[in-house]
Amino acid sequence: MKLVIFDGNSILYRAFFALPELTTSSNIPTNAIYGFLNVLLKYLDSERPDYVAVAFDKRGRAARKSEYEEYKANRKPMPDSLQIQIPYVREIISALNIPILEYEGYEADDVIGTLVNRLKNQNLEIVIITGDRDTLQLLDKNVIVKIVTTRFDKTTEDLYTVENVKEKYGVFAHQVVDYKALVGDASDNIPGVKGIGGKTAIKLLEEYQTLENIYQNLKNIKDSLREKLEAGKDMAFLSKKLATIICDLPIEVTLEELKRREWDKKKLYQILLQLEFKSFIKRLGFSEEIEEIKQAVQLPKFNMKKLCDISEIKGKEIYLLCSGDEGLFYIYDQLSSAVFTTADKGIVEKLLKDQGIQKVVYDLKNILHRVDFGDTYQLKNCNDVMLASYVLDSTRSSYDLETLFISYLNTDIAIIKENRWAGATILLRNLWDELSKLIDLNSCQYVYENIEIPLVPILYEMEKIGFKVNKNTLQEYTKEIESKLLKLETQIYQIAGEWFNINSPKQLSYVLFEKLKLPVVKKTKTGYSTDAEVLEELYDKHEIVPLILDYRMYTKILTTYCQGLMQAINSVTGRVHSNFIQTGTATGRLASAESNLQNIPVKYDEGRLIRKAFIPEEGYVLIDADYSQIELRILAHISEDERLINAFKNNLDIHSQTAAEIFGVDVSQVTPTMRSQAKAVNFGIIYGISDYGLSKDIKISRKEAAEFINRYFEKYPKVKEYLDNVVKFARENGFVLTLFNRKRYIKDIKSTNKNLRNYAERIAMNSPIQGSAADIMKIAMIRVYRRLKEENLKSRIILQVHDELLIESPYEEKEIVKEIVKTEMENAVSLKVPLVVEVKEGLNWYETK
After folding, report:
1. Which chain positions lie within coiled-coil regions (predicted)?
2. Which DSSP letter does residue 408 get?
3. What is the pLDDT of residue 166?
4. Number of helices and strands (H, E) in the chain?
5. Which of 813, 774, 810 is nearest to 455 (CA)?
6. Which of 119, 129, 216, 773 has a 20 to 30 A CA-CA distance from 675?
7. CATH code, 2-258
8. DSSP letters for 754-802
9. Is it the case that residue 296 has pLDDT exceeding 50?
10. What residues does CATH 1.20.1060.10 cover in the chain?
11. Does the structure show a pLDDT above 70 at 361?
12. Distance between CA 464 and CA 580 in Å, rounded?
């Protein structure tokens, strides 16, 4: 008869650090799970045990830390990406029907020791599978220890028995704790006796057998060694106590309970699918049984009936979907049948407002539009799986429902199609269970519950209200742009000496580089490049180049903004109704589409003039609130750099202050050029700018740019420290975090391709800052929205562009709204530096800037 005991924590930890990063398509880390399962299956197969158990720590340091506060104090907290994997490992063990043994306050070794002590005198062979040598002290005539080393493609072992331990380890099994008492254990921060190494400890134990005997015979030990032992006596006996495995825990488990049992194949198959462990599915022979198992996970058939009133909902939690192609609402109530409604949108709205029913939906904002939801302030208790998946991984390419089902549930697409939307509604429950568990494991609750979900009704209302456009103003500006383009075309053709298609890269390339003989800057596979970077470099090389750049600018204004906006104006409302996308960026910023009002030009006045066409309703005024230098303020907060913090606290001009620091002059001596260069450095640092990038931006040599950056870091050393640390964190964890724990995965941070790696490092530097700014703006929007609702005002948020919030306010409300906006935005979050908001008003958008 044989019992195999796995040291769960030891195997997991070693697998995590030994194996390369592995993740599922939904970014669940899996390297530790993979390594652990590899070991588990290998020894279940090779040892063929009659009994089996897995031991885990349960707040494992608590008992020993009460003896010695520094016990394992040198160990870093468990990495998040390992913590997330533990529940999956436990699920796998459960599916294999293997008992998990643990005891509050004690380590897995103590659980193993207790089990061995209780069973070693029975007619039973005991095999301990572990990743470290602590359990060597448990060796006995019928107890062996296998120290395993995990690799991606194989697992090797080092076998220890009571007979060979002296030869391999240097001491007998019963002397292992005495040995550790003398030499200590760096991995557990057990001190031992200062100055005594392994060879000395072995000699002492060979002569005196035990630690107690050593100290009883101190007079027989030479002076220098005796002095070390005398000085370290207390630590020696404390170390022995810390190293000794506790073997008498009151664990209530019988040998019969450890008997090996049949696996739960359905459960195991589903977990392996979810983790995308195709090799294990094949290895376990599931390929022959997949069809049978798939049948077990088929969705139930159910009768559809029309929902007439929400009183028919019997459960406290329902799952709702809106089918785009059929225009139906599907509802799954766990305590009754699946139900749907076609024309009765009011019932769905009533359901969404019901405080007593918890709703889980896909794409809540879309559903609000479908039912033409009324007062958004009455929306209650709704969860959105699309937003939950976005919070978990903002770098996904798609958040469509079928993709989420496949990524998180590994559900066969045929199941979804067979049951259509009704079946998908049932799967929504399983999807929400998985996503909510991952949100807890990733500590994303605040971002999901306090930022993304409360933002939905605000964005819905913004889309519904829209932004009024003065057609006449837009038409007049369109004519003005067309006139300028015509004039530019004439000038360009005159200089070129011929007509050609200015928008054709091939024809433009011929004119610039073959006819006018301008220096070639960059070649492509199809010829000479004429992109914006090339033209900027050629700007002062020929009079035609500035004209071409202007031509491109005006062409974009005409086609993208003037003509595009004209087509986007709603014929009924006279307003442009943008679509605000919550899942559109990796940083957490909002995106805008159809039409993209966030992309209205701001860098040059010709583009900004378009804003004159955006106006408030008659009797209303536009109020624009803009965060001042929010990203630099976040940098000051995160880096804790005293110079930056003091500059903002004292309300100094941060760019002039930086210029004074970099150039070593008084602020009064800072020239506009110096300030402009310092501004480029300030903002460039946030984006991890290189000396090459800075040299291009401010048109100086690369050497000068490097000196600027070096001087900046000399004056702001904590900024350099922060940037280095955040890149290190990203390299170790594969992601970075905002101030609110929003996570962004950083692809290629360990790439062997230098360009890809450098780009990933710049993203790592910037994402916590830009993401935190996005979070703060969203929190501010929520605060402003709630104040406007609470005070029963008619004013409404109509647009958000990066750090800017735009409100349409009745003229009589404008002063109170300006006060509300400034107060709520400046107090959205408490930083080490003040948040400053500039508030302006105007009768068109241009006037507010």
Report:
1. 201-235
2. I
3. 87
4. 37, 24
5. 774
6. 773
7. 3.40.50.1010
8. HHHHHHHHHHHHHHHHHHHHHHHHHHHHHHHHHHHHHTT-S-EEEEEET
9. no
10. 470-568
11. yes
12. 11
Residues 6+ apart with CB under 8 A from 579: 463, 592, 593, 594
| Topology (CATH level 3) of domain 305-442 | Nucleotidyltransferase; domain 5 (3.30.420)
Residue among 73, 8, 72, 4 at smallest CA distance from 35: 8
Give the pLDDT band of residue 554 (cuts 50, 70, 90): very high
Structure confidence at residue 301 (pLDDT):
53
Backbone angles phi, psi at 296, to 5 degrees: -70, -25
**319: three-class secondary structure by DSSP:** strand
User: Phi/psi at 261 (nearest 5 deg)?
Assistant: -125, 170
CATH 3.30.420.10 segments of the chain:
305-442
CB atoms within 10 A of CB 497: 10
Q: List pLDDT tens digits, range 401-418.
A: 888 887 887 765 555 555
Cβ atoms of residues 750 and 31 within 8 Å: no
SS3 360: strand
**Could you tell me the two tokens for 259?**
């008997």
Locate tokens 């490092």: which residue?
Answer: 761
User: What pTM value is reported for the model?
Assistant: 0.78
Domain 470-568, CATH: 1.20.1060.10
Name the amino acid, one letter, at 668: S
pLDDT band for 305, please (50, 70, 90 cuts).
low
Closest CA to 12 of 108, 153, 106: 108
Q: Which pLDDT band holds residue 605 (cuts at 50, 70, 90)?
A: confident
Per-residue pLDDT tens digits for 93-138: 999 999 999 988 888 999 999 999 998 888 899 999 999 888 998 9
Q: How many CB atoms lie within 10 A of CB 559?
A: 11
∠ CA 297-89-298, rounded to 5°? 5
The phi, psi pair for 103, rounded to 5°, reads -145, 130
Q: How far apart are CA 214 and CA 467, in angstroms?
A: 87
Give Cβ neighbours of residue 180 (< 8 Å, ≥ 6 apart): 190, 192, 239, 240, 243
Query: Using the 8-state DSSP alphabet, how is residue 591 labeled?
Result: E
